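Module 6 notes. Inverse folding takes a fixed backbone as the condition and produces residue identities as the prediction. Think of it as a translation problem where the source language is geometry and the target language is the twenty amino acids. Below is one complete input and output pair. Work through it position by position during the lab.
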């Protein structure tokens, strides 16, 4: 097998849609063996039909549920014979002002976007150590670098994920494990489209988003997957503890 990830065993969460799906596609193309985790079992089954063979396995998992994560990660490690890398891409959004936001909504955002990647890293960590090292890449957001109005829970979860990854990078370096974070801007995903299409004026909402970016456009999922690939590959062998903005220039624009 050839490619930047030839024969590497990678666990990917949020794998059925958006950035996670684009990452699965790119990683398989680059020679990786992928274990895909997601709550959407129907979408996972469709992916299994696409990739087949021994390059792809999938398991249902809710990253906010410790038991679900433990079971899925254990099954994935057994199927692949261990892990050489982890990508935590599962995430959700919330648009709510502080007066209307329910505590349950805040807790759900933190559970999925911050606690979820921690649970996945915790369950995967022994397998990465056993492999003699590896990579963890968390998908955060540009909203963790530069805030967005009415997204206090989302921004807090993503900023927390970045700092947690930096702290883990210090701890994991002893075992040859690199930990990094990708911070995307707006990306053409189902999650993004839902937020646009539910706005009072979807066209105006889209233009307002686009105007925040130096490049004046919204990214494709594959553009984010390319950054995740680099941080997972040997090309970034001296990079750990970073939070890389892949956001078309929003955080400086």
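Target side of the pair, the amino acids:
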């Amino acid at each position: 097998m050839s490619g930047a990830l030839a024969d590497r065993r990678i666990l990917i969460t949020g794998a059925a849609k958006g950035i996670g799906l684009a990452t699965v596609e790119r990683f398989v193309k680059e020679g990786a063996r992928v274990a895909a985790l997601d709550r959407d079992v129907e979408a996972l089954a469709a992916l299994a039909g696409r990739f087949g063979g021994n390059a792809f396995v999938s398991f249902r998992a809710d990253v906010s549920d410790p038991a679900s994560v433990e079971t899925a990660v254990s099954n994935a490690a057994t199927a692949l014979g261990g892990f050489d890398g982890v990508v935590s891409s599962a995430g959700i959004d919330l648009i709510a002002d502080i007066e209307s936001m329910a505590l349950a909504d805040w807790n759900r955002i933190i559970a999925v976007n911050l606690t979820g990647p921690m649970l996945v890293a915790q369950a995967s960590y022994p397998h990465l150590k056993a492999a003699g090292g590896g990579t963890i890449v968390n998908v955060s957001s540009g909203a963790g670098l530069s805030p967005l109005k009415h997204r206090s829970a989302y921004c807090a979860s993503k900023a927390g994920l970045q700092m947690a990854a930096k702290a883990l990078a210090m701890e994991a370096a002893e075992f040859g494990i690199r930990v990094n974070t990708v911070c995307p801007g707006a990306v053409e995903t189902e999650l993004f489209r839902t937020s646009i299409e539910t706005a009072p004026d979807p066209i105006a909402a889209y233009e307002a988003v686009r105007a925040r970016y130096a490049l004046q456009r919204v990214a494709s999922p594959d553009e984010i997957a390319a950054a995740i690939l680099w941080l997972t590959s040997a090309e970034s062998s001296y990079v750990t503890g970073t939070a890389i903005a892949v956001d078309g220039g929003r955080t400086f624009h």
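Reference fact for the lab report: The domain at 9-185+220-246 is CATH 3.40.50.720 (Rossmann fold).
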